[in-house]
Amino acid sequence: MIFSSPFFIAVFLPVTLALYYMTPRKLKNALVFILSLIFYGWGEPVYVGLMIFSTAVDYFHGMMVEKYRGTGKAKAFLWSSVIINLSLLGVFKYNAFIVTAFNGLFGLGLPVPKLALPIGISFYTFQTMSYTIDVYRGQAPVQRNIISFGAYVALFPQLIAGPIVRYKDVAEQLESRTHSVDKLGEGASRFVCGLGKKVIFANTFGAVWEYFKGAELSFLGSWLGIICFAFQIYYDFSGYSDMAIGLGKMLGFTFPENFNYPYISRSITEFWRRWHISLGTWFREYLYIPLGGNRRGKGRQLLNMLAVWLFTGLWHGAGWNFLFWGLYYFALLALEKLFLLKYLEKSRAISHIYTLAAVLFGWVLFAFEDMGAAVGYASAMIGLKGPWVTDGALYYLGTLAPLLTAAAVGSAPVGRIWAKLTKGDGLPQAVISAAAMAACMVVALSYLVSGTYNPFLYFRF
Amino acid sequence: MKNKLKAIVFITILTVLYASFWLSPKKGYSENENRYLAQMPDFSAESLFDGSFTKGFEEYVTDGFPARDGWIALKSRVDLSLGRRDTGGVYVTEDGCLIEMFSELDRERYGRNLEYLRQGKGNLSAFGPVNIMLVPTAAEVWRGKIGNSTPDVSQRELLEEASGLLTVDCLSALEAHGDEYIYYRNDHHWTTLGAYYCYSALMGDKALPYDDFEHEILSRDFLGTTFSKAGIYFEKDEIEGALYGRPTMERNMSGAVTEGIYDRSFLDKKDKYSVFLGGNEALTVIRTGSEGGRLLLVKDSYANAFVQFLIPHYSEIHVVDLRSFGMSLSSYADEAGITESLILYNLQGFSRETSVFRIGG
Questions:
Q1: Are A6 and B62 a contacting pair at CB < 8 A?
Q2: Contact status of B255 with chain A (Cβ, < 8 Å)
């Protein structure tokens, strides 16, 4: 089930909220667990068993790590958890990729498996791993209640598209969290904001990107197309995060922020501090720092970065293009670390243009599974392929100009201006912000009911 | 207060959505979209585990959403107010026409279909002359109304690719009358007048003047397929009939012969264009009462409005729609004693049609 569907909004969400607020505090986690299983099982009726298995594994490992704390056995259980989780990913996400790579390397003809990828597996395996690691490190208390633990893993708001909530972020909230009408309203408006970002912006740009991906390449068209893709993926992903954070708030949870206006960055280093923050945090805490981070000299630091970015690339999908995409960012980040950052600080304009251009070329790698197609597309962007303009490019430039402008403005921190305009808590401000929310919801619903292009982008994650 | 009011508004919206979804009467069939709407799926262990129950339930909610047509109209108005000129796959022109976009083309299929057409022409030429017409859609002929540049494929180029096969230059015939009412404003078909200009181009000197046909306004409130996609309209369409003689038609060898070639029952429905021949049947045999040969017409729905003009020229017209026609075309032509053939498709439909291979059979 996805949030941006008439079914979720008109059926699942009303029922969920009604049940949740009627249920006594003690049973709320159990209800969240059950609802989350239904939410996941709705789209993955078979793989819900896999998620329950992953939950049980880490519940058990957490207990064992606690039981044998201070002994070698605790470490053994920690590794066992990590290996089981990574194996789940290996089997269910990377099977075909690994077998194809093997076949290519050794000239074998092994049959390539065709397992469907369980939705959200990359999110929930990372979460359950974080739990066992946090318990091992003594950064989070062990969870003896399997219902509460299950509620954490399956927690439907952030289950299928993040943010990746570490166990220690919500450990306390699982036991005691508060609910109020204020929180409900705050969560509601965050949810509606995310819904609008997803269906009004992301889906529209996505449909235009689909056109440019298949149309005759041109200089203007290729730039316009990749800009549409950049807006699609930003508004889609950050919209999902907004919806998750909003839904979490309605259920009394506070999740970490996941996006912080990434397109205003003035270096790639800054971009990755602002884009998919919870993933960056995860890799830093559970991979980069354990490998030694920057404490063992420059050479080792670069090696650690290389490891992080190989995995970051592959995390986004089991394909070579994602691997290259990760390496591309490793190269840029390494260059910035070694000398480029110093120069970037000198000019705001140049550093901004450099960052946006680097990110857009990065999206080309990300968007095309076929490297030949990616190279062809990038050649059009630097004017080596196709005409300068096509009728289609001119058409969309003209008809999308208002929406592109709105999207560009919206990817800068203008929310703060809105917050200023509706500052204060009197009746006028309340009416204005509630009306804005209602309008956004109605328009978003009209897009959803019209049933136009509404893809789920993270099925590969 | 701000958050409290937001909470109240949000909960109210959800409650209204939930209640109105379950309380609103459900339609089985959508006349507007010309399709059966999804129904509540049956629940069983099997349907649950193969995912068809949950998927069906979601489709049921989307299709049965209260005031669905109103939501679609709202979406179009939002799109237009944002400066867009297309919505739901339809261009909205300044003078209020809704024109179906033609921006996606399966080139490979188009090439293959042309090849089938070539084979079919060969086969059918055993039964007399074969004429082939591919009719450009409004997206090409009315390109000027949409704007100077559009993402559409060039139908002119597609027609040039096929020029060796085509016997009538429909694009020139229609463009010569581009400022007339040759396509419906709210449907993807051509009007009776549009069909007449191409008939004229086909028949040349033998074509009868427009006024030799008896004209009748069949409907004044036609809203067709492009309206359904956009959900809005500016001016309704008129459907005009061009009558000649006293033809009869028999559908699918049923033995039931009806007077005239119109099925006026469709005039009370949404799908009013189906007044012509009563829509797309596998086989319709028209006995015209005129003198002349026996024509085999292989076609899509564009031909339904075109047939009216053929009445004076043939004694029988055998109208075949390959999408549902099961027999071999040449053995049918043989049996029916066909003396001439006409293949007529609209270019957009032809470029994605999957049954054209049967022309060769």
A1: yes
A2: no
- B146-179 residue pLDDT tens: 987 899 999 999 999 998 999 999 999 999 999 9
Question: Is the domain of A90 the same as that of A192?
Answer: no
A425-447: per-residue pLDDT in tens?
A: 788 888 988 999 999 999 999 99
> How many CB atoms sit inside 10 A of residue B25's CB?
6
Nearest CA in chain B to A427: B1
Asked if A157 and A191 sit in the same domain, the reply is no
Is residue A1, in this structure, part of any structural domain at all? no
Chain center to CA of A323? 17
B81 occurs within a structural domain: no
Distance from CA of residue B278 to its chain's centroid?
A: 13
pTM: 0.90
Residue A443: list chain B partners with CB under 8 A: 74-75, 78
Task: Tell whether A39 is covered by a domain.
Answer: yes
Contact A438 B13 (CB under 8 A): yes
Quote the number of domains for chain B: 2
Helices (H), A156-218: 156-159, 167-175, 181-196, 203-214
Q: Same domain for A364 and A408?
A: yes
The residue in chain A having the minimum alpha-carbon distance to the alpha carbon of residue B229 is A450
Of B49, B66, B83, the residue at which a domain comes to its end is B66
Domain of residue B26 covers 2-66
Residue A349: other Cβ atoms inside 10 A: 8
- Give A452→chain B minimum CA distance, Å: 7
Which value does ipTM take for this structure?
Answer: 0.88
Contact between residue B278 and residue B263 where contact means Cβ atoms under 8 Å apart: yes
Which residue among B66, B83, B117 closes a domain?
A: B66
Q: Which residues of B touch A183 (CB under 8 A)?
A: 3
